[in-house]
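Entry 12.
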Amino acid sequence: MKVNIDLNSFSDSISTENLYQLIFVSNSKIQISSFDSQSKKILSLKEYSLEKELKNFSVSDLKENIPEVKEKYQKKILSFSSPKITLVPKEFMKDDISNEFYKLNFNKESGEDIRKDYLSELNSFLIYSTDFNYSKIKLAFNPDDSFNSATAFFKGIFKINKLKDTKSTFIEIDDNFIKLVFFEFDKLKIMNTYNYKSKEDILYHILNVSEQFDIDSDKDNYYFCGNIDKNTELYKLLFNYIRYPILLHRIDTLNYDKCFDKTPSHRYFNIFSTALCE
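Predicted 3D structure (tokens):
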């Protein structure tokens, strides 16, 4: 397990009573941040890259290699990445029929549990599955609350953008899938995930959705976060087809320690957005 980034700036004046631990987990990395809930300030960030898939780690491995697991906080919030997600309007969920809605979109595999998060911004439930990887992370960190990372992603989007005046497409590049959300002004038109094996696959999915929903790559806004930077081959490829791929900026309603001044915030958009899930 390798540490990719370690930013930390604690002050003795910060009460531990106000400290939250934010945790974001994907198949290839674990990001951990400390958040002062009183000042709404992100204080630290540490990222571990997993040199083997998460499924190959035991709970003991995680506890032995990640010292932050043992740290005490007022609250721990876990955001867990998974590609099998679907949105259901609240009006259709008067009874808890999450399993039925899930099975309309996906095959439920052995060991999967079906969960739901409520998104007040959309008056909808996000329905998704968790598996044994989620169970291991939960046993290791013992979080007070846990959410699908798409919930944090949506909450971050609503905090940084004025959706009423434009068409906006938001794409998160995860380890082996992308999450794509398109708003036509303030109306959500599509939320979906797409698996990929190459940068060309990513481009194909974006252009295909653009064609379906009449999104103009020369005029409309495309926002990116996750595993992408301006110096990557993926960004260069996208730039050939999209007027200007915009890397998501910081969430303005949160504060950030000065140690983050030179940190590419789009890469950590999900862990920062987890602070909005309290």
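Annotation: The mean pLDDT is 90. The first strand starts at residue 2 and ends at 8.
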